[in-house]
């Protein structure tokens, strides 16, 4: 039997990655952040001086997507006392740790344009599927017997046969507040943004993600929708873990 697969999709800052990491930790599953792949390709393009919003650069960006080596390493707590702490994921682009660089405002601003390029999505899809296939079978991960993946098209395209599909939604104001808190916690050195700007940026990104031609952000027909506006992280993690147990 193949490992249990959980697909988590939803708009920007809906709490996907925090929820997905906590669910993976609670269940002993592996975790793959697919947004990190698009962020790495965006960073690679920007650092080569390519303007991602210029359509004539699409081929160059697609080539970069194909040739880039992207690696993820999530560190889970194993002791029961620390099981409620948040696992951390390190992201590597061509062996360089870019975990912080891919979260900057500049990358966030351009990533949806990059993610709308068809051949970029094909290249990322291949890499994500390869990682999903190997992460579970690797020696170092032999203890992990399931997979949680988060993104925008996991339930619809990447893992269409996932055993559980979750679609997280939350009010955009609530999401903007959470994003600001997250930035404050991470000790980001970037200029402090006001909530209106953050909210507008999230809404702009969602609009691009929802209306693009290739694999737009949408709830899969068989996904369970979870509105997290009024839920705590613990509450949403519990709900998903229970649903996994019910289906296992
Ligand atoms: O999840 P995160 O905010 O890091 O994703 C960054 C961007 O990558 C999203 O706004 C979206 O444009 C793109 N993305 C995507 N498909 C995925 C994951 C992310 O198009 N599966």
UniProtKB/TrEMBL annotation:
Give the superkingdom in one word.
Eukaryota
Q: Which reaction does it catalyse?
A: CMP + ATP = CDP + ADP; dCMP + ATP = dCDP + ADP
The answer on whether this UniProt entry bears the keyword Repressor reads no
The protein depicted here goes by the name (d)CMP kinase
| Coiled-coil features, chain-numbered ranges | none
Q: Which organism is it from?
A: Linnemannia schmuckeri
**A GO term, aspect molecular function:** dCMP kinase activity
Keyword Protein biosynthesis among record annotations:
no
HAMAP family named in the record: Cytidyl_kinase_type1
InterPro entries membership: Cytidylate_kin, Cytidylate_kinase_dom, P-loop_NTPase
Q: What is its EC number?
A: 2.7.4.25
Organismal lineage: Eukaryota, Fungi, Fungi incertae sedis, Mucoromycota, Mortierellomycotina
